[in-house]
Each structure stands twice: as C-alpha cells, then as structure tokens.
C-alpha cells in the first residue's frame, strides 16, 4: 500500500484524504518525474497541462524495431535494424561525381557501414559516440556489412531499445526531443494510466471486444507488436464513434419525446388531388420515397429525413408532394435552396405546377426590393402564402410563419447543422426534409448525419438518355468544337463552365469574359452566347436564365452557379474548363445539368494543364468510367477523404480526435449498432452504469446537438 499522502503528528488533526484518481490526473505536468518547469512550458504549447491530458498525447506514428539484432547475426539481403555507436563519419566524391556519406557504427564487437548518396544535409547530424538505430536492407560488401539509405533514429543516451520493439513517434514542439517525449510518456503511463476512469461497464467492454482504458493507454503508447497497437486504437476509435452515435441517438429520442409536430396524414383524396397537378407519372422510386415521407408526416414525431438521389433523379417533385400534403392540412411549407438561381427555378416549377390550383406560393430571397419583401413577409405571417421558396433569407428574424408544418432543404450538403436548427426554430417544430444530389457515402450518413432517416431514389425518370463523357486533351478539342456546332445547329444548347477563384474579386467575371470572348470570336462565332456568374445582379441572372431556358441563347458561359439543380432539358452539352480544379461531386453535378431530357447528354472535361497530378487524373478518369453518382461519391471519398468533403465547417460538429471516417468505416457501423442497442435498452442513458458514458456524450456534443435537457 502506498504511504500516506501527508504525515501528521499533531494529535486530533485528521490526515487529509489521499488524492482521488481524478485529482491525481489533474496534476500539472510540471511535477511529473523528468519534466520540470521548462518542459512543462513546451508541453503547454501543445495544449498539454495535466498528466491526464498528457496520456492522450498519442503517437502520430510508430517505428518498428522488433527486427533489431546484433550486427554479428545479420544475414545478407534481409531487412533488419541494428543499434550502435557512431565511430567514423566520412564523405567523398565517387568517380561519377556523387557525394557519398559513409557512417561506421559499431555495437562493441562488430561494425556496419551506412551509406548515403547526395544527401549533404545529413553529415552534420552525425557525431562520433552517438547512439543510433538504423533500419534497412543489409548487404555484405567484401567482408563488411553495409546498408544503403537506412532509416535513422537518433537515440538518447538513456534509451533502452536493445530489446528491439516498436517505438512511438510523438508530435513535438520546439524545446522537446522525441526521446524526452518518450520518456515523459513512459513515466506518465506507468504512474497514471491506472487512474484513468473507465467509461464502459465491464460487460460492454467484453461484448464489444474492447481493451480496458489503462491497458489501451499502455498499448497505444508502447505496443509490443502491431496487433496490440490495433487493439488499442480500436478501443479509442470505437469510443469516439460510439459517443457521437449515442449523442445522435439521444437527440433523436429527445426529439421524439419533447417535440411535437402536426400530424399530416395522407388520404386517398389528398393523394389524388396532389397527383392531378403533376404532368407525369411518378416512378416507383419516387412513389416509394413519398410513402416513406408521408408515413413520417402522419405522425406527431417530427420527421427528420434525408432524401438522396442522384442528379436528375426527380427529387423536386417528391418535395412538392410533401409540401402539398402539408398545405392540404392547412399548414405552410418552406423550400430552401442554396442559391438564388435555384430558388428562382423552383419558384417557376411550382408556379407551373400550381397554375391550376388555389395554393399560393411566394419567393423570398435576399434580393427582393424592400416593398416586395415586406409584402411577402406580411403574407407569410398572415398565412396567405402557403408555400415559401427561398434562400437563406427565409432564416431572417423578421420572417414569422403562421403555421409552419414542413421545411424542405434542397442540396443539403451546403447547409450546416447550425443553419438547420436555425430554421427549425423559425416555426414551432415543423417536419423536416433535406435533399441532396451529392450522395453521401454510407459511413457519413451513419455518422455525421446519423440523426437523419434516409430515403433514396436510385432510379432515373423514364426516357433518360445516354450520357457521354470525354477528357478533352488538346488533340481532341477540334472534334469537340465540331460536335458542339453540330448540336447547336440541331437546336440543342450547352454550358461552358469555368472555375471560380474566390480569392480574387474580379477574376470571376474577367475569366468568364475572356472565355466568352474567345468562343464568341472563335469556335462558336455563329452562335448566341450568354454569360452568368454569381456577382451579377439577381435581375440580370434571372433574365439570362430565362433567355437560356426559352432557347434564345445557344450557349451559356458561366461559373459553377449552374452546379446545383438547374434544370433545362434542352441543354445537352457541358464543357468544363480547367476541369481538374473541380471536385468529383461538383463535376458530377455539372454533368447532371445536361443529362435530363429526351436527348443524350455530352460532357467534355478540358484540363487546364498538360501535367495533371495523379489524383486529378484519377478524378477525371473516374468521370469517364462512372456515371453513377453513388459510386462516384465513394471514389471521391477514397481520393480525398471525408475531411475535405464533409469538413467540420459543413457539418458543424467538433472534430474527431482519433477516428477517421474513411479508415474506420467498419467501426462506424459497429459503433452505430452498439449505440442503437444501448439507447434502446436504456433510454436517455439513465442507468447508473452508463452515467460516465452519458457524461462524455454531453461534454462533447451537448451544446451542438442541443442535448442539454436530455433526461
Ligand atoms: P433532381 O433530383 O436532380 O433535383 P429534378 O427534380 O430537377 O432532379 O428532376 C429532373 C428532371 O426530371 C426534371 O426535368 C423533372 O421534371 C423530370 N422528372 C422528374 N420526375 C419525373 C418523372 N416521374 N417522369 C418524368 N420526368 C420526371
Ligand atoms: Mg434538385
């Protein structure tokens, strides 16, 4: 047993209680053996103040020196690691003029020569007497062992690696060496790992095959082998993912209990009244999505549904159906779009569909005149306008709904969690449908968007024609322009998209004007070309879109403002300049613009350079090979990783510390299943054995996911 914390001889004075584990973990790193004030200041720069936090300073990598052997036991042409002392450093020029650095190391009895060619910066790093670890392929040259370009690890004097093991490699900051960091972590793990609180009950550790926290800490810092490391990582990644999944499950449960939405049941009569307005039969996939949505809307539990469907799969009409169902019950519905162009297009679609009905729809964007705006706002408040189509402007303070029953958000990935909840508060618990044409990989829907139910439209509307995609290398361009002229002459239309550079104010218009000028005087001089970009006034934008929709323009030179949702079936040609600068989902979105009507679509990707990076080349090739947006989303996910696609900025949640949604796909599913199971047996995580887990969930996500009043 440990000695009392304080010795007290004073009679009658009770010894203070020994520190609790939590207090011990709160010990400032300064007091850790081998640390001291100076190093504590360095650690502070890494955000590390307490020993408890230090334990979570995980290695960023590991060096595997398990194959460390004495020089005497080396075998030619194998890979091995040896430890030794530098006994000679020499540099010379070879006959061919290469600089060769030779470093002789000895392990007491035998010697090995390490060689580097043309790496002059290495020489000053070696000093006689220094301890080093070298790993690489061994060769026997004459009577001497040699390693060319081995991996080097400089050792501290006190570093005992003679066993041959895996070494952690830590993120550092100036003022602390790798060896010192290793030492501190070894001390910290030995002295404090067992103080760490276990959030999982023993039964769950066993069921999910997780290491206890103290063991996991030991093994993540000092794994004996890769299997141990993997076990340790599994524990931390699983915990992190589970905590998120539990947060989402709790949020869902809380909403089910606390929030009430109007029940908007579907009847045969309403169904017939809605369908009468539609110019076409719905596809089986659309009907299925509608059934799922209508089932949700029929209940007082708020709907929280994601409708995903590839570009052109016909999501709009499904949304319109849902909105009309709300209206049939005397409620209002909002359709929110990410861009003005798209909002206006939706408004036109609705106006067309509703021309034979009493339902009033209104447009609310940021560019209405003050008079238009106040009239619209007033009629929304009075409940005269039943369907409101708008941009983020519908989130404004002054927009009050009379009876908001349903919110539809188009192109969901453009809106973060925060905006979603902002809109939610605009009414009293409306139902909530989000739509995306950028299919979200399954791992992501199950994690970051795990609070949403999902409906998927996988089938395109009937009569969808073929789609052709080309990479327009220089030699193929003349043929492409021939083709464009031929199609224009047949009456088809096309987009010519250039990337938008955000940094430069004028770039947008300047580059568009240049492309427009080149085309208008060159390849397409006999045709009518318009221009569209984000900085035009909304009036001009609207005019141009109308002219294009009416066929008064053959081509539209534009930025990616047409990326989302624009629907002009007669446009069948898409030319994308500097295509390598667009992401895959964006390219697919753009291509979707010309794959809508009764004609085949053609997309030409024009690289802006002859020297594409490997990643860019793969992206363009994926566009040629794959037309399925869901498959492309997975490719994109592989090429770029989730960070860039669904960065914290977009989903609005705190970042992960150890989990990686791409690497840890399987664990995401396991954690989700585990969370659902846990939440179903213990609603709100109220059982005492789940208290610690619950605390973790609230600490990390309570604020962002409004979990404050759970339980
Ligand atoms: P997205 O899913 O990309 O939003 P839209 O809703 O814009 O797709 O639909 C794409 C095109 O398909 C539109 O022109 C729309 O009118 C048409 N469309 C949708 N559903 C059907 C259907 N069931 N039959 C025929 N055309 C349809
Ligand atoms: Mg759409």
Describe the structure.
With 711 residues, the protein is an alpha/beta fold. The chain has 23 helices and 21 strands. The strands form four sheets. It has a seven-stranded parallel β-sheet, with helices on both faces. Strand 5 (131-141) and strand 6 form a beta hairpin. Helix 4 packs antiparallel against helix 6, helix 6 (213-221) crosses helix 7 (226-258) and helix 19 runs antiparallel to helix 20. Residues 315-316, 410, 437, 565 line the site of magnesium ion (MG).
Helicity, as a percent range: 25-40%
In whole angstroms, the N-to-C terminal distance is 41 Å
Q: How much is the average pLDDT?
A: 86
Radius of gyration: 32 Å
Uncertain segments are 1-8, 414-419, 643-650
How many DSSP E strands? 21
Record the strand order, biggest sheet: 11-12-10-13-14-9-15
Assign the structural class, choosing from mainly alpha, mainly beta, alpha/beta, alpha+beta, or little secondary structure. alpha/beta
- The rough form would be described as globular
**Which small compounds were modeled alongside the protein?**
adenosine-5'-diphosphate, magnesium ion
The largest sheet is: 7 strands, parallel
């Amino acid at each position: 047993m440990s000695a009392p914390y304080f010795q007290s001889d004073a009679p009658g004075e009770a010894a203070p209680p020994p520190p609790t584990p939590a207090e011990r973990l709160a010990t400032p790193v300064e007091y850790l053996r081998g640390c001291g004030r100076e190093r504590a200041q360095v650690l502070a720069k890494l955000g590390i103040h307490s020993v408890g936090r230090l334990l979570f300073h995980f290695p960023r990598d590991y060096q595997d020196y398990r194959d460390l052997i004495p020089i005497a036991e080396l075998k030619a042409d194998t890979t091995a690691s040896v430890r030794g002392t530098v006994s000679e450093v020499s540099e010379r020029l070879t006959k061919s003029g290469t600089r060769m650095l030779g470093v002789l190391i000895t392990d007491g009895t035998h010697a090995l020569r390490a060689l580097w060619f043309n790496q002059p910066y290495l020489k000053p790093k070696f000093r006689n007497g220094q301890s080093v670890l070298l790993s690489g392929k061994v060769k026997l040259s004459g009577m001497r062992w040699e390693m060319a370009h081995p991996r080097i690890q400089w050792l501290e004097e006190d570093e005992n690696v003679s066993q041959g093991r895996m070494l952690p490699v830590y993120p550092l900051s100036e003022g602390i060496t790798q060896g010192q960091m290793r030492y501190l972590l070894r001390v910290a793990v030995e002295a404090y790992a067992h103080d760490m609180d276990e959030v999982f009950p023993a039964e769950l550790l066993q069921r999910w095959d997780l290491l206890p926290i103290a063991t996991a800490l030991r093994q993540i810092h000092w794994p004996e082998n890769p299997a141990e490391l993997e076990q340790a990582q599994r524990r931390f990644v699983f915990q992190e993912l589970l905590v998120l999944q539990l947060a989402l499950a709790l949020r869902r449960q809380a909403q089910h209990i606390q929030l009430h939405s109007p029940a908007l049941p579907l009847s045969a009569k309403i169904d017939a009244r809605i369908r009468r307005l539609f110019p076409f039969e719905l596809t089986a996939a659309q009907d299925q999505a509608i059934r799922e949505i209508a089932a949700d809307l029929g209940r007082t539990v708020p709907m929280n549904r994601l409708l995903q469907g590839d570009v052109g799969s016909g999501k709009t009409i499904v949304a319109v159906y849902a909105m009309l169902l709300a209206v049939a019950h005397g409620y209002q519905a909002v359709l929110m779009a990410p861009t003005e162009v798209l909002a206006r297009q939706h408004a036109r679609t609705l106006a067309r569909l509703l021309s034979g009905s009493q339902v009033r729809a209104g447009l609310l964007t940021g560019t209405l005149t003050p008079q238009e705006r106040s009239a619209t706002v007033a009629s929304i408040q009075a409940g005269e306008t039943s369907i409101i189509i708008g941009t983020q402007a519908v989130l404004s303070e002054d927009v009050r709904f009379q009876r908001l029953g349903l919110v539809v958000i188009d192109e969901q990935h453009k809106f973060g969690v925060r905006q979603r909840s902002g809109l939610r508060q605009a009414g009293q618990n409306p139902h909530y449908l989000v739509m995306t044409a950028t299919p979200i990989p399954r791992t992501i829907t199950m994690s970051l968007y795990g609070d949403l139910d999902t409906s998927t439209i996988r089938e395109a509307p009937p009569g969808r024609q073929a789609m052709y995609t080309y990479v327009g290398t220089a030699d193929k361009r003349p043929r492409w322009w021939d083709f464009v002229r031929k199609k224009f002459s047949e009456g088809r239309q096309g987009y010519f998209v250039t990337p938008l550079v955000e940094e430069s104010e004028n770039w947008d218009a300047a580059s568009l004007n240049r492309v427009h000028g080149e085309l208008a005087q060159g390849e397409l001089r006999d045709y009518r070309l318009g221009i569209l970009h984000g900085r035009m006034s909304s009036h001009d934008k609207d005019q141009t879109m109308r002219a294009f929709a009416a066929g008064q323009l053959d081509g539209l030179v534009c930025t990616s403002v047409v990326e989302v949702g624009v629907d002009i079936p007669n446009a069948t040609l898409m030319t994308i300049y500097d295509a390598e600068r667009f992401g895959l989902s964006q390219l697919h979105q753009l291509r979707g613009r010309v794959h809508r009507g009764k004609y085949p679509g053609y997309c030409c990707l024009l690289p802006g350079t002859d020297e594409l990076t490997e990643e860019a080349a793969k992206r363009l090739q994926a566009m040629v090979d794959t037309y399925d947006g869901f498959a492309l989303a997975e490719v994109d996910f592989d090429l770029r990783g989730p960070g860039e696609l669904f960065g914290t900025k977009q989903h609005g949640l705190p970042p992960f510390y150890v989990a990686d949604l791409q690497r840890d796909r399987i664990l995401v599913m396991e954690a989700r299943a585990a969370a659902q199971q846990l939440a179903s047996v213990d609603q709100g995580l109220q059982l005492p054995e789940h208290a610690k887990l619950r605390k973790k969930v609230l600490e990390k996500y309570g604020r962002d996911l409004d979990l404050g009043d759970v339980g």
